[in-house]
Design goal:
Structural class: alpha+beta
Oligomer: single chain
Order of helices and strands: EHEHEEEHHHHHHEEHEEEEEEEHHH
Strand content: 15-25%
Largest sheet: 5 strands, antiparallel
CATH class of the largest domain: Alpha Beta
Number of helices: 12
Bound molecules: flavin-adenine dinucleotide
């Protein structure tokens, strides 16, 4: 096995061009588990956690660009938490402090599990994923990036360089349920983000489909009936949004949960998050 540790983005992309089938390793919290368990074999490994260009973020007050190598331990606190509170809330639910000090957002995007905690938030925020190879760069909407469970639009030789989310002005949050309260992969998860200036509500569901699912009908209903300035959304509309989210879910039975429970859980989580977004009834 060859292991390369590039220290610049150019060197990393050149290494990818030379070995397009290489295994990219960032924090290793997914990759090492797969290698150690024999579920993945690697002839070439390219370690990207010493590439400075991947480990920076920028915010101009309108949008926040987060390098793929930024760890969840940094995303869970200010200043990033102030600009993307739902992403920070999701970050705080990832594994344990030890995992969050190694796990990167680029790794979560690279694995692209429907249970990945960062992903419903990226979906709800209509994030853009920035990709690069030695030959070109491209920007892909998150909705077009995630193709299926652990299947992405990444082409051989491409790296995730960063992800950009808008800085919205409204309540936003994330919640998940699992088989216990901590150190748990989500059996169902929901992100809700609101934006007062555009009177919009966005709802994304995780772990209840092959990809992260949006709920356009529930979003439109909530936005049409919410009073954004007074923080009000009637109980009847809120319950209908929960029902619409349950209908949008496409869960399966697996070793973590049943489809019936998952569908019920996203309905409950959507109701809870909408009540937090609009607390005055
Ligand atoms: C004990 C434990 C608990 C966990 N708990 C959770 C949890 O609660 N929630 C959750 O969402 N996840 C959890 N995970 C999974 C994991 O921590 C996350 O998915 C994490 O974000 C992966 O990041 P990483 O940097 O470690 O990625 P790595 O393991 O290094 O890589 C993951 C995948 O992404 C690819 N990749 C990495 N960086 C790039 C890049 N820049 N460009 C292209 N591809 C790239 C890799 O090739 C690989 O396929 C847990 C893992 C463990 C071991």
């Amino acid at each position: 096995m060859s292991v390369l540790v590039p220290t610049s983005l150019d060197a990393a992309l050149q290494a990818m061009a030379n070995a397009p089938d290489a295994t990219v390793l960032a924090g290793g919290t997914d990759v090492m588990v797969e290698l150690n368990s024999g579920h993945r074999r690697a002839q070439h490994v390219i370690v990207v956690n010493r590439v400075p260009e991947l480990c920076t973020w920028q915010c101009d007050g309108v949008s926040l660009r987060i390098g793929a190598g930024i760890r969840y331990a940094e995303i869970e606190r200010d200043p990033i938490a102030g600009w993307a509170p739902a992403l920070a809330e999701a970050a705080r639910t990832v594994g344990s402090p030890q995992i969050r000090h190694a796990a990167t957002i680029g790794g979560n995007i690279g694995t692209c599990s429907p249970a990945g905690d960062g992903l419903p938030v990226l979906s709800a925020l209509d994030a853009v994923v920035h990709l690069a190879s030695s030959a070109s760069t491209r920007n892909v909407a998150f909705a077009d990036f995630m193709l299926g469970p652990k299947r992405t639009a990444l082409l051989p030789g491409e790296l995730v360089v960063a992800v950009t989310v808008p800085v919205l002005h409204g309540w936003q949050g994330y919640a998940k349920v699992g088989v216990r309260n901590a150190m748990v992969i989500a059996t169902a998860s929901v992100a809700v983000v609101t934006d007062v200036p555009t009177s919009s509500v966005r709802i994304a569901l995780g772990s209840v489909g092959p990809v992260i699912l949006r709920c356009p009908e529930a979003e439109a209903l909530a936005a049409a009936h919410a009073n954004f300035h007074d923080g009000r959304l009637g109980d009847d509309v809120l319950h209908r949004c929960s029902e619409l989210a349950m209908q949008a879910a496409r869960p399966i039975d697996d070793h973590r949960s049943t489809a019936i429970y998952r569908r019920h859980a996203v309905g409950v989580l959507v109701g809870r998050l909408l009540r937090r977004a609009f607390p005055n009834g």
